[in-house]
Amino acid sequence: MRKEQIIFQDLGKMPYQAAWDYQEKLLQENVKRKSTVGGQQLTVNHLLFVEHPPVYTLGKSGNMDNVLMSDDELQANNIEFFHTNRGGDITFHGPEQIVGYPILDLEKFYTDIGKYLRNIEEVIILTMAAYGIKGDRSAGETGVWIEPGVPGKERKICAIGVRCSRWITMHGFAFNVNTDLSYFNNIIPCGIVNKQVTSMQKELGHSLDMQEVKEKVKSNFERVFEAELVSEVLL
């Protein structure tokens, strides 16, 4: 049986608004395709990788109290801020972090948002395992953690927040590779108090090759979603 195809693009370094606009464009194109007769077969899946300049983003149900900087302080430190339409609370995006935006038609995979979130977590858990790091899930808290069941040692390494319209997804995950973790001191990450944030670099004690990690994430995405990443859709 032929695997579902997903067009992969690495957008490189791109401002948050530009990437958000691009995601929205791809999502709306798929919604429009679905509105036509036989449109289910016309939707196109995408996976975007990007690195953003420093930016804080707040989910649609997020709490502004979790932002610990004023507008003036944000501006003085050249950090952007956006209210978004994804799920989840406050998080940070910045250099040396792999941000992944899947724009998938879940009707071509499964119509189960919970399963979708768990599968994104699994992609990151498998990637971490390749470096000897045990990633895990924390009950009731979306994302990937290390030692989530050890009080005082819980630390989050990947945040996940998505939006879904007509079973088409956007937004996605932020995986800390060599990320400057000091930016997380200015927020209450994901609105969860008394828990740490970490990165692959911090856990291993050395920086990693970003391209190498990206290739592992891509390979694991294909494996978990039973799909094929391509540069263009092959008919």
Can you give a write-up of this model?
With 235 residues, the protein is an alpha/beta fold. It is built from five helices and twelve strands. Strands 1, 2, 6, 7, 8, 9, 10, 11 and 12 form a nine-stranded mixed sheet that branches. The chain has a three-stranded mixed sheet with strand order 4-3-5, with no helix packed on it. The two termini are 14 Å apart. The model has no long low-confidence stretch (mean pLDDT 92).
Short key terms for the protein model shown above:
nine-stranded mixed beta sheet, 5 helices, three-stranded mixed beta sheet, BirA Bifunctional Protein, domain 2, alpha/beta, 235 residues, 12 strands, single chain
The percent range for strand residues is 25-35%
Helix content: 25-40%
Instruction: Provide the domain count.
Output: 1
**CATH architecture annotation name:** 2-Layer Sandwich
Q: What is Rg?
A: 17 Å
Can you describe this structure in just a few lines?
This protein has helices at residues 16-34, 71-76, 113-129, 200-204, 210-225, and strands spanning 4-13, 45-51, 55-58, 80-83, 90-93, 97-103, 136-138, 141-146, 155-165, 168-176, 196-197, 227-230. The protein has 235 residues and is of the alpha/beta class. The relative contact order is 0.20.
